[in-house]
Amino acid sequence: MITTAPKMMRLQRTIIAGKRAYHDLVTLPGSKPIVSSGPPGYSAVSGHRVTVFGCTGFLGRYLVSKLGKMGTQVIVPFRDEDEARLFKPMGDLGQIVRMGWDMRDDQTIAECLRHSDTVYNLVGRDYETKNYDFRAANALGSERIAKIAAECGVSQFIQVSHLNASKTSPSKFYQAKAEGEELVKAVFPSATIVRPGPMFGYEDKFLTNMAVWPIWWKLNHGQTTTRPVHVMDVAQGLANLMTNPQFSKTLTLPGPSTLTYEYLLELVSSVTLQPASRAPVVPKGVATVLAKIGQNVWWPSLSPDEVTRRYIDDADVPGDWDAVGVQPSEIETHAITYLRRYRSAENYVRPVVFPPRPAPSLVAE
Ligand SMILES: NC(=O)c1ccc[n+]([C@@H]2O[C@H](COP(=O)([O-])OP(=O)(O)OC[C@H]3O[C@@H](n4cnc5c(N)ncnc54)[C@H](OP(=O)(O)O)[C@@H]3O)[C@@H](O)[C@H]2O)c1
User: In terms of domain of life, where is this protein from (predicted)?
Assistant: First the structure.
């Protein structure tokens, strides 16, 4: 009787008011109840409270926007207050909560996540700074957040890693990403690990960088293969995980096709209607030395590890898009959106022409 009475009341309310149904109440591990209400969209209440560490980055902004649209209360931890201002209109009043944090301060981490049922960790850096090396930014920080999340009773932890994360990789960044996965799993065993491929979008360091610095993408004669994925697809997949948890899984989210940098440079050139770069192919040793010298400037420049990564093919593993309920789109579908700004004024509205796709063996089925 004790258990059925509230259910009967809910059923009655559903029939009379037509407002709430059984599926509006979800119980997450740790018995956290999630109660959704309201109309769909921006003004809805999904019932979830989510913290997105690393929200101020490229992927984080799109994820917060998608979560806000679903009516989720999102805690957005920031280091620089200006970086967090853009989140304000992404959710209804009171739904976007901005909080200052420091990766080395347990108390601020706990404050940011203690009321959340789901925590996303998108924190990562693919170059070293004087305060944070690859390990500190990608592995130790993730472990710290996951440990505090476990202590605070968070139900779901989603760690964003990288498609090429591997402890045996020649790249220190990919090694740190793999170590981060292991450390997170050790302190939060049911964590979901998500491994996206290289992402493209407005603020990427991929397509737009190719338009500006083609010379650095010609390394290895452009023969390195990559599996680019649209940032919106990854953000949607991550947002879907909130309502469709994949506890204790590793999900890989590569792009639908495997392409060479050579093809992508051709694509950039034909979409922007700019002549192909005639810069020479820089040998690896020279590129590494130049990248080391470049580290003396105070803004992020091509790092020696990035030179190493330009010679590493993206992992050839199947994608788990079905698990996150997203159909990934091809790079050609969105290229013009992000590359039109590199066209000259007289070419601005000309139709888009794509170069022929490379040999079929390079294109995933
Ligand atoms: N971009 C890609 O192509 C790609 C591909 C696969 C995987 N990933 C992974 O996906 C995640 C998100 O990528 P992204 O492109 O959005 O990265 P991003 O634009 O570089 O953003 C990284 C985020 O991490 C935060 N962060 C970095 N170091 C920090 C530190 N020491 N303390 C506190 N916060 C720190 C940044 O905060 P601030 O804004 O305060 O600096 C920012 O919010 C990363 O883990 C990345 O490794 C990215």
Answer: Eukaryota
